[in-house]
Amino acid sequence: YHAKRAGRGRVVVYSREMEDAAKRLTRIEQALRRAVSAGEVEPYFQPIVDLATGQITGFEALARWTDRDLGPVSPACFIPIAEERGIIGPLSQLVLRKATEAARHWPDDLFLAFNLSPSQLVDQNTGLHILSILDRAGFDPRRLEIEITETGLMSDPRSAKKIVDDLRACGIRVALDDFGTGQSSLGRLREFSFDKLKIDRAFVSVLLEDKPAEHIIRAILSMCEGLGMASVAEGIEEEAQARRLVEFGCEGGQGYFFGRPANAEATLRLLRSNKSLRPLGT
Ligand code: C2E
Ligand code: MG
Ligand code: MG
Ligand code: MG
After folding, report:
1. 116 lines ligand 1 (CB under 6 A)
2. Cβ 150 under 6 angstroms from ligand 1
3. Where is the EAL domain (predicted)?
4. Which of these, 13, 86, 112, 171, is most buried using a 10 Å CB contact count?
């Protein structure tokens, strides 16, 4: 009898937790819809550097949202909700519009990197939306780099390939983001032409202690060289990691060691100070 009660009790607690989670999701969804219509999601910009010189070569735009009641909400939380609830299109267009407006004030040899979500790679209007935003901002497509993940290629590879090919035909570069953590096969690298490969932070963070991670990074870099793809290592937090990566022939770097994501204004100030970020001492 006791056990039965406990069992029944558990069922009740469980469903209440699910109800709370569902309510929280809906609350975030509603707040996000409102924020997107009010233009309240902002791009922050994280520098990407030439590892050998520390010179900034471009910035990755990363969406930031602070709700009046919920406070700052991480993109790791709101991007998946935006995808599931059909808000990703307008959200993405808002962030790209603001990002290209900000990037117009940068030296014009710097690129802007922008993330696309998996669901945007099954929507054949994505390319048109991007191009019309660039057109309106007077932003050269050759300065834009689209970042997509292996997951984004999985659900409908044909559709994704068409979008990628169309973007590249317009001069937009395409980077494969978070490489090494998704579930796609190396065969995708043959089917798709990527301009750049971004090595996931998971490898970089253990690089100094972990021989397997070192071998994997070296293999990825040699593959990049063979396939004519540029390379960038993500999540560099220490100078020693940057040094190792240069030794291995990695071209680009990104991470807190060089700079955290910052808003448009702070990014412009950084560029006007015209310093290379943390050149590696000799
Ligand atoms: P991502 O594209 O792989 O972006 C890199 C993430 O790593 C960013 O997290 C960045 O702040 C973080 N990061 C950079 N350097 C370091 C480091 O040295 N150490 C650590 N621990 N983290 C570092 P963030 O901004 O929270 O974004 C998370 C993810 O959300 C992004 O991963 C991207 O997949 C997605 N995302 C962000 N903005 C957008 C957007 O506008 N559109 C879409 N579709 N996705 C976005
Ligand atoms: Mg990215
Ligand atoms: Mg990444
Ligand atoms: Mg990542």
Report:
1. yes
2. no
3. 25-275
4. 112
